[in-house]
Write a structure and sequence with these properties.
The protein is an alpha+beta fold. The protein contains two helices and three strands; from the N terminus they run βαββα.
């Protein structure tokens, strides 16, 4: 798939913690990375259409914490069957 006119389904996959009140564990982030890898390698193969990069600065006591995440928009020619089972 190299033509955007073939894209019929878009999946947004967020990797990282995007909600300061619900921080994700390393295992949950790894699970999101595995989902992204499956989107790009399994049948039908997805194509990255765009990437959102975002961050937040949090003040926790006297420490400043940077919360960052990436949201990948993956386009498919059709919704993968394995994704219907996972949702």
């Amino acid at each position: 798939m190299s033509d955007l006119s073939q894209v019929k389904y878009v999946k947004r996959v967020v990797v990282g913690s995007d909600n300061p009140s619900q921080m994700l564990s390393d295992a949950q982030i790894a699970q999101k990375q595995e989902l992204l890898n499956r989107c790009l390698s399994d049948t039908p193969k997805g194509m990255i259409l765009g990437i959102e990069r975002s961050f937040s600065l949090l003040q926790i006591g006297e420490h400043q914490v940077v919360l960052q995440w990436l949201a990948y928009h993956v386009g498919f020619p059709r919704k993968p069957a394995w994704m219907q089972d996972a949702e």
